[in-house]
Amino acid sequence: GRKKTTTKxxxxxxxxxxxxxxxxxxxxxxxxxxxxxxKKWGGNGEYxxxxxxxxxxxxxxxxxxxxxxxxxxxxxxAIQWLADNQDPKGNFAPKTTMYSHAxxxxxxxxxxxxxxxxxxxxxxxxxxxxxxxxxxxYKAWRYWPKDGDNDISVTTWCVMAMxxxxxxxxxxxxxxxxxVKNFLEEVTEPNYGEVGYTAQIGRASCRERx
Length: 210
Fold this sequence. Notes:
By secondary structure, the protein is an all-alpha fold. It contains eight helices and no strands.
């Protein structure tokens, strides 16, 4: 169904060629153990889990799984690296922010929805459970686990993971959705529907507009 959807939404042969070239570049620059090295491209190595998740999302978006597609070995190695680096609590990135946990969790859940490999499902579900466990009480997420602060950016990645979990047939608690709803209502301007970063636009600084 991907080809049909791509065409319907404006994609064509040229755009597909561009996507495949991008995927080839990612595949060519994957490390032997399956991750993508942030330091090699001028970044901070602590963000390897997040960047590996972003790369895996690109392959998932093009329909590649660990069972099918010409990049299935690339996908398999990336999943293996994330699984090997998940801590006992289920966190993929204990040394950095929730971005680097939520993104690989989303990527793994997307992969599970397309190719329900039992081991990958277990790793993804453990990541999801950790993410929900560190959600702020009656609210959402920000940079650090259960830090009492919330922002719309980190929360969006977490919500996408929750949605992917539902697509993959996993249960997401009503309380987790209710907390997100509470936060969204708090940061949404009631008359125009404008959403602030950490607070309603009227109460937020210009730097917090999204």
